[in-house]
Design goal:
Strand content of chain A: 15-25%
Number of strands of chain A: 11
Helix content of chain B: under 10%
Order of helices and strands of chain B: HEEEEEEEE
Oligomer: heterodimer
Distance between the termini of chain B: 30 Å
Mean pLDDT of chain B: 96
Radius of gyration of chain A: 19 Å
Structural class of chain A: alpha/beta
Helix content of chain A: 25-40%
Low-confidence stretches of chain B: none
CATH architecture of chain A: 3-Layer(aba) Sandwich
Number of domains of chain B: 1
Strand content of chain B: 35-45%
Shape of chain A: globular
Largest interface: A-B, 36 and 39 residues
Radius of gyration of chain B: 16 Å
Strand order of the largest sheet of chain B: 6-5-4-7-8
CATH class of chain A: Alpha Beta
Mean pLDDT of chain A: 96
Number of helices of chain A: 12
């Protein structure tokens, strides 16, 4: 265990299409909502973490916070998981007592957002962009054909990841897409980057989220049930997709997961609820295998057999995920907020008796990973 | 229509692009542990040695993985859908590329098919692409 809790967690009032919100506004609205959720004000915050832009200085200044600790770690969509980990270390060290972590992104409306384009002298600019790489759909997706050849994952199994998650989204009024879909619907949707169809790619939305992290010693002081941070992990792989250590597994997921599980002293059998950042349909497959929830090459069948959907043994991406709920660009925050809701018992599609939740985040395609183990009790223990 | 993205060499990558201009695929290997590697950088990723050297690779490769992209990057509008591939060089390292001299369809792009480097002008550099081995050069 880390000795810290998530005392407050919230998203922007709405997620989806928010053309009236700048990127900064999304950060600030989420921050105020998380503070209210924790029963705190900006005066109680002495540490801040977020990605650029706007970055921790602007977010802190906009809220009238003068931090004595800040973290601007920006390694893609998993950054917020790393912020929780870094905040835990800072709180343990006495460098901060109450840390605000914010996310806001105008991914769809692009209000006050910067344009994606690598510099021509960067390694991406020299060794990826000249080949027509254009965002995540053209790079994050590349490993999967190799995986399909090595392990026999079928197009139908890949498509079914989206079907399973839509079943969760149907239970979530805030999800952007809630209508049931079939494997045939997925395979009939427009091709984006073969073998990925539109419904196998994440949404592009606007929204934000924020967390309040503080010492577990204060667990009784807040209006909402504390969510204990039991274990954390982070790692990285390659900055170019072509250099990923192994196209059939995520080394970064595996290493971050091992770290988090060891710190929390849990095994996969202890996990009641799971969030795996689903930028594309193959990512939950890589995540399940990297953390040992299914055998190598078996996760596609595991999902297609219904294990991760409502009624299954391992509820996965219960908000509907990036495929159906929301995906602003750096989705990791929303994976955390859903895990918090599940541990508190207040999720739209609540998993009965969710005591331990694991959040798996990726960043910069498969370049980085963060893993959090969250729990209702301070000590995970073994429950038979 | 915008031009396709063109690389701008840096001091550590200049020998690679100089090789391409000469019609050769020059990559690096470690003089201590013999590990061949790509992308260009001054430290061996296997052992951490800075004692690294350039050599001319064979130009032979196999198709490791790919996607066929339907949403073209600027400059690629007339080519969509086009494949973005990763090839494995005979010497071991992988690199991203485009696949030329072959229809960019799943039927024609079979993983592990043998490929051969070819070069195409892009801005100020010659860009390495790959084509099926045995195709007219």
């Amino acid at each position: 265990m880390t000795g810290v809790i998530i005392a407050g967690a919230a998203e922007t009032d709405q997620v989806g299409k928010l053309p009236g919100h700048s990127t900064l506004q999304l950060h600030l609205e989420a921050a105020l909502n998380a503070l209210a959720d924790a029963g705190l004000t900006t005066r109680d915050v002495d540490g801040i973490a977020t990605v650029s832009s706007p970055g921790p200085v602007q977010v802190a200044h906009s809220l009238g916070i003068t931090p004595r600790w800040m973290d601007g770690t920006a390694v893609g969509g998993t950054s917020f998981l790393l912020h929780v980990r870094h905040a835990a270390a800072a709180i343990l060290a006495g460098h901060a007592s109450t840390v605000l972590i914010t996310h806001g992104e105008s991914g769809r409306s692009r209000v006050g957002a910067s344009r994606y384009a690598p510099s021509p002298w960067s390694i991406q600019g020299q060794f990826e962009a000249p080949y027509g790489v254009f965002g995540a759909t053209t790079s994050f997706t590349i490993p999967v054909l190799r995986y399909m050849k090595e392990f026999g994952l079928t197009h139908e199994q890949l498509a079914y990841v989206a079907v399973a998650q839509r079943r969760w989204a149907a239970k979530n009024p805030r999800a952007m897409y809630r209508d049931p879909i079939t494997t045939d619907d997925v395979l009939a949707s427009r091709m984006v980057a073969y073998p990925f169809h539109l419904l196998e790619c994440c949404l592009v939305t606007d929204g934000g989220g924020a967390l309040i992290v503080t010492s577990a010693d204060r667990a009784g002081e807040f209006p909402r049930p504390p969510v204990h941070v039991l274990g954390t992990g982070e790692s990285s792989d390659a900055p170019l997709i072509s250099q990923m250590a192994d196209f059939t597994q995520s080394q970064a997921f595996r290493l971050a997961g091992q770290s988090a599980f060891a710190e929390a002293r849990i095994t996969v059998g202890d996990v009641d609820h799971l969030m795996i950042y689903d930028a594309f349909a193959h990512v939950p497959i890589y995540g399940l295998e990297a953390l040992g929830f299914s055998g190598k090459g078996e996760a596609g069948a595991f999902i297609a057999d219904g294990n991760t959907e409502p009624g299954g043994s391992l509820p996965l991406n219960t908000n509907g995920g990036g495929l159906s709920y929301t995906h602003t660009g750096m989705y990791g925050m929303f994976a955390i907020t859903e895990a918090v809701r599940q541990i508190r018992g207040e999720a739209a599609a609540q998993v009965a008796g969710a005591e331990i939740s694991v959040v798996v985040g990726n960043g910069g395609m498969f370049a980085t990973a963060g893993v959090l183990v969250l729990g209702r009790q301070q000590n995970a223990g073994r429950r038979g | 229509m915008e031009d396709k993205a063109a690389p701008e060499p840096t001091p550590d990558t200049q020998p690679f692009w100089d090789g391409c201009a000469a019609g050769e695929l020059r990559i690096q290997r470690c003089a201590d542990c013999d590990q061949a590697y790509f992308y260009p950088r001054p430290v061996c990723p296997a052992c951490g040695s800075a004692n690294v050297e350039w050599f001319t690779a064979s130009g032979n490769a196999t198709l490791y993985s790919y996607v066929i992209n339907y949403r073209p990057a600027p400059g690629f509008e007339d080519e969509a859908p086009y494949a973005i591939g990763v090839v494995q060089l005979a010497e071991g390292p992988r690199m991203m590329t485009n696949l030329v001299g072959v229809p960019n369809t799943p039927e024609h792009l079979v993983l592990d098919m043998p490929l051969r480097v070819a070069f195409e002008r892009r801005g100020a550099v010659m860009l390495p692409l790959f084509t099926p081995a045995g195709a007219a050069e």
